[in-house]
Amino acid sequence: MDKDICLNSMEIEADIEAYFESERTLTLVGDADDPLYADVPRPPRKMSERKPYPTPMKVLIQRAKEEKEARKAQPCRMLEEPPDNGLLVPELVEVAHQVYRARQSVLFGLSKLLQVVPVQRCRFCSEVHIGHAGHEIRTCTGPNSGFRSASHVWKKGGVQDVVSFPKCFHLYDRVGKPRVGHDERYRIPRIPAILELCIQAGLEIDEYPTKRRMRPVYCIEGRIVDFEMVNKMDGNSYPGIVDTLVDPDVGTNMEELRNSASLSHTYCVDKSSVKVGKSLTELSSTTMGSWFEMISGARNIMEKYSVKTCGYCLEVQVGPKGHKVRMCKASRHQSRNGLHAWQEATIEDLVGLNYVWHVRDVNCPALDNNLKRYYGKAPAVVELCVQAGAPVPDEYRSMMRLDVASPERDEVDLVA
């Protein structure tokens, strides 16, 4: 009898322990099996590992085989689909202008919001925190972090810490000369990759000219051949703009595109001057709306215009191929002679979505390291706008973990 009671008590204790273990598992952040928090960003990968491919390798191999068979079946053919044939995609020209205006609006809004909500950045690593005081979560990986117990050393940050726009080489002819050689690295300017994406999609900026064609190009045994008559160049190392019609289907000539580009710049200035008189909540909401407009528009353009990124470092190149500049210093660069390992890029490679810890109440003490499992994350732009008064977007409610009640500091041992 006593033996049966003892066995029953042991089974009850095992069931209770399993119950609390399941509750503890649901509470942890970044659980891969929990669909509710599947969008919480994982910790940074090791620098020796390659970035995951957005498109599976089997699909890439199948595409390469189909292209090879198409070249064998028809060695000389005219490319029909834009932008591979050198022409613009008509429906994406206005999207490029919208992305450009949205980027200008985001930069202006962030410069104004930082005067109210400061940004803290670590002196030794890339960690960023939105608020008047940095958090106490020990995640520093910078030099001598072991002597500081991985604690961050905070200093004042700026707009470049909230959102980053990686730079790439500007291509004058994305189809005729899609690659930049190593010897040309100092002659060709580098501009933000999202700006280069807008230029290739139809945006006209006088400082960064690009070639526009009237007729599609030909593909002869895998090589691009352009039979269109081109105006004579003046012999400079960086050619000037060619005043030709873009595409009859686009419905706009080069002069109209230039006027629209100047109008977009004027629109940004006028919009900025109007924002000065608005309240902080309206400014933060407008900035967040421009942020989502920029991200969604860039995604739409990237579906047609290819963007490449290095599989081991942060280098980005907008165009059908990556450049040949030997500047990679990431893992295994010796075997590649400093060349980048190019692959398909994502929106996070084009625009730096710097994730930061979400602060629910700015008046509460700093985030505690023992309670980090209960804290959520969000892109720095979203966190800054939310702290300035903008409503929390539905896309990041789960990531910010608004439905999780974090315990007090003296209650950690009771729930951990």
UniProtKB/TrEMBL annotation:
Pfam families: APO_RNA-bind (PF05634). This is APO domain-containing protein. InterPro entries: APO_dom (IPR023342). Residues 33-52 are annotated as: Disordered. GO terms for molecular function: RNA binding. It comes from Prunus yedoensis var. nudiflora. Signal peptide: none annotated. Residues 121-207, 309-394 form the APO domain. The lineage of its organism: Eukaryota, Viridiplantae, Streptophyta, Embryophyta, Tracheophyta.
